[in-house]
Design a protein that fits this description.
The structure is a single chain. By secondary structure, this protein is mainly alpha-helical. It has one domain (7-91, 102-206). Helix content is 58%, strand content 8%. It is built from seven helices and seven strands, in the order ββαααββααβββαα. The chain has a three-stranded mixed beta sheet. β1 and β2 (12-13) form a beta hairpin. The protein is globular. The model has no long low-confidence stretch (mean pLDDT 94).
Length: 208
């Protein structure tokens, strides 16, 4: 994308990111960090993921669209956590090693999000998150189904994301939890220099 023409968030291009990046100082202007969050992070998620999810929710028939919704949500979890950490995925070939800020295990990143980030951390521990990764995330993305007895329902009581005893994931509640996390992340990004450094690494990589 050396021309800067690649779209990365709505009509924002890699060139637009680099222009903002030039004045985006770690620990600097809160207004510029709010702009970076709104224009690039939030817009990217809203247009590419949340708007399509809303269409499925609004026009659903409760006959299976929950699988599509949850599959989209699961693709986001790894992105959200890797942005917090400022790391990028790299598929290792034989003999290769990871460089700085690279990872090769989607499982570890996915599980880290569920057990460390509110509001998900209130419901997931390591064993449950690993089970969810295998039965829901990998089941949906690799085989277009859930595994291990997991079921997808639209919504559950009291905003719960899952019912661990009955192995149910509530896709609408999962969406509300994602949106709550993103709102809190945007607030923290304005002042947290570690998050800011990680944010820059992630978007620099997206714009390569």
């Amino acid at each position: 994308m050396s021309s800067g023409s690649g779209l990365i968030a709505g009509w924002k291009t890699a060139g637009d990111w680099r222009a903002l990046r030039a004045v985006l100082v770690i620990g600097g202007s809160p207004d510029l960090w709010r702009q970076a969050f709104a224009d690039f992070y939030q817009t990217r998620l809203q247009l590419r993921y949340f708007n399509p999810i809303k269409v499925l929710q609004d026009h659903g028939t409760f006959q299976g669209e929950g699988f599509s919704i949850l599959a989209i949500q699961c693709t986001l979890v790894e992105f959200l956590e890797s942005t917090i950490q400022g790391i990028k995925y790299r598929h290792l070939r034989r003999g290769e090693t990871l460089g700085p800020y690279e990872y090769s295990s989607s499982r570890d990143v996915f599980v880290s999000f569920l057990v460390k980030r509110e509001p998900f951390s209130k419901e997931f521990d390591d064993p449950l998150a690993l089970d969810f990764y295998a039965g829901v995330r990998c089941g949906l993305l690799h085989e277009a189904r859930t595994k291990g007895g997991w079921r997808v329902w639209a919504r559950g009581p009291d905003g719960a994301v899952i019912d661990r005893d009955r192995r149910i994931v509530y896709r609408d509640n999962f969406q509300v939890a994602l949106e709550a996390f993103i709102e809190s992340y945007g607030t923290a990004l304005v002042a947290d220099t570690a998050l800011q450094e990680a944010f820059v690494r992630k978007f620099d990589d997206l714009c390569e």
